[in-house]
Amino acid sequence: MKNNVTRLLVSAIFGFIFGILGILLFMNDTVQEYVLGPKLIEDYFIYVYVVVWMLGFITTVAGLMMIRKIFNKANHNNLDPDELDVWINRTYYRAQDFTTGGLLLSLLTLVVTVTGIILIEETNTTLMLTLIILSIVLLIFSTYAVFYQAQALPKINPERDIPSVDDKDYSDKLLKVSDEGERHLILTGLYKSNQTAQMSILVGVVFLTIVSIATETNQLLAIIVLLAIFALNAFKYTQVLKKEM
A Pfam family this protein belongs to (predicted)? Predict the structure, then answer.
């Protein structure tokens, strides 16, 4: 109990210090112009777009290449079955990270494009149309990669009755076909990711509050949206627990 109180006090002190530093940082005119204001997009739009688009394309391709590597190694390998299984699982989840990252970056590319159209007064219509098309193409490509990666799991393990990702009871069926060790890993990962998501949302609320105070801008709508997501996530978690008891 004493250790918990000490950690709570230390966290509160550091939170207060970083909060004050954050307010001072975002009160800086340069930070307000380039981080919170339109200057970054107005001055460096095409550079920001190219960097984000290329990162999205590269991460998506990397994820697809990892899935292909799994297929090739699984079909032509003399490794011990247990070692091969560990390698396949690690590579598969690494590929999942890349395809998910590619999807998020493709969405960011589209957001950057729309923001540029809104903020830049004199825009080249042909250029903007080309960038929009490229953004949509990347979004479609990254979405395909996410579904391809998800649907690859049954093909990687053909001897197991792994459900298709579009099955409405996918989560329940996947748990049923998993052994005890796999269930432990899945549930541990889900629990930790849930805790991380809740903590990240609260940090986001604090961050927006600091920005709102430092810049005297109204961030209430964004804060309400984050708190609504937090509430939905928390209530869904407890609802599932009560249902399974």
Answer: DUF3169
Spell out where the chain has E strands.
none
Max avg pLDDT among 78-82, 101-105, 215-219: 101-105
Q: Report phi then psi at 158, rounded to 5.
A: -65, -20
Please check whether residue 237 is in contact with residue 194, taking contact to mean a CB–CB distance below 8 angstroms.
yes
The closest alpha carbon to 177, from 195, 154, 148, belongs to: 154
Spatial distance between the Cα atoms of 60 and 142, rounded to a whole number of angstroms: 6
Between CA 63 and CA 100 the distance in angstroms is 9
Q: What is the three-class DSSP state of 167?
A: coil
**Minimal CA–CA distance to 134: which of 50, 68, 193, 73?**
50
Q: Average per-residue pLDDT in the chain? A: 77
Residue 32 DSSP one-character state: I
HSE-up of residue 140 (Cα within 13 Å, Cβ side): 6
Confidence of residue 102 (pLDDT cuts 50, 70, 90): very high
- Tens digits of per-residue pLDDT, 167-214? 666 666 666 767 677 677 777 877 788 788 888 888 888 888 877 777
Q: What's the DSSP call for residue 6?
A: H
pLDDT of residue 138: 94
173 touches 167 (CB < 8 A): yes
